[in-house]
Amino acid sequence: MTRTRIFAVALSFALMLAASPVYAADETAAAPVKEGAGKAAPEKVTDNPYRLKVDKRSKEIGAKLQPKELEHLAYIREGFGILRAVYMVERDVGTAVKACGRDNPALREGMDRRFSSWTGAVDPVMKEKQDRIDAAVNDQTYIKPKEIKDYLKLIEQAAEHANRTIDKEIITTPEACNSLAASMDRTQDTVAKLLGQVQVKPWPPVDDGSDEDKPVTTPN
Questions:
Q1: Among 43-52, 67-76, 113-122, 184-193, where is mean pLDDT lowest?
Q2: pLDDT digits over 5-57, tens only?
Q3: The total number of structural domains that make up the chain
Q4: Structural domain range at position 95
Q5: How far apart are CA 215 and CA 105, in angstroms?
Q6: pTM of the entire predicted model
Q7: For 133-150, what is each residue's pLDDT tens digit?
Q8: Is the dihedral of CA 212, 215, 216, 220 positive or negative?
């Protein structure tokens, strides 16, 4: 039985939500799954009702904001997408760790300890970045904060809907569970690097003449 990786949730989002510049793709960690699991056909916009709402709302917001305002909102949206991707990754690997511990009592303590170390390294960074995004939403003056929060909620719902289309039946053989633990060793720094990409510009904008941290995408 071939073991494929399901724990690259951010990568899955990049494939399924390609038309929506929300989720960053990168290697995260590998959870063992059945052959063929973790795969989904490329999602059509019409297959995800929240995607339609996101696209509609993006156009509405874009029509009433100035370029600098759109750029600032792009940082918020991009950072939010990265955080949600990492959160879903953490949630899925936690489910896999519990399943491995349930079916392999001898591995439970070691896997729980490794997962606690992984979350201990990632969670504080996630909180700090989330606090920055929350502050950026509340401090900007070009749109009501609630409108941005509702917009981000639609993006989250679209991602959750896409995530539910992936078959995630987990294999809990000792070999597969050891592979999961090893993947956490390899990818802890990768996730930290991904979170490090979350940047929020100040508002009002300060023009330093540099495009170094300019986000890759802006809301449509």
A1: 43-52
A2: 434 333 333 333 322 332 222 334 444 544 333 444 444 545 788 999 999 99
A3: 1
A4: 7-27+46-196
A5: 45
A6: 0.74
A7: 999 999 999 999 999 999
A8: negative
Q: At what angle do helices 145-164 and 67-103 cross, to 10 degrees?
A: 40
In whole angstroms, what is the distance from residue 54 CA to residue 83 CA?
A: 18
Cβ-based neighbours of 172, under 8 Å, separated by 6 or more: 32, 99, 100, 102, 103, 104
Q: How many CA atoms lie within 13 A of 152 on its CB side?
A: 21
- Whether residue 202 lies inside any domain: the answer is no
User: Where is average pLDDT lowest: 43-47, 52-56, 111-115, 191-195?
Assistant: 43-47
What's the 3-state SS for 35-99?
CCCCCCCCCCHHHCHHHHHHHHHHHHHHHHCCHHHHHHHHHHHHHHHHHHHHHHHHHHHHHHHHH
Within a domain: 218: no
Report if residue 214 sits inside a domain.
no
Q: Which residues face 4 on adjacent strands?
A: 33
Instruction: Provide the 8-state DSSP code for 142.
Output: S
Helix, coil or strand: residue 16:
helix
Residue 41, in any domain of the structure? no
Distance CA(29)–CA(7), nearest Å, equals: 5
Q: Which residue has the tokens 């917009």?
A: 151
Among 124, 108, 88, 121, CA closest to 180: 108
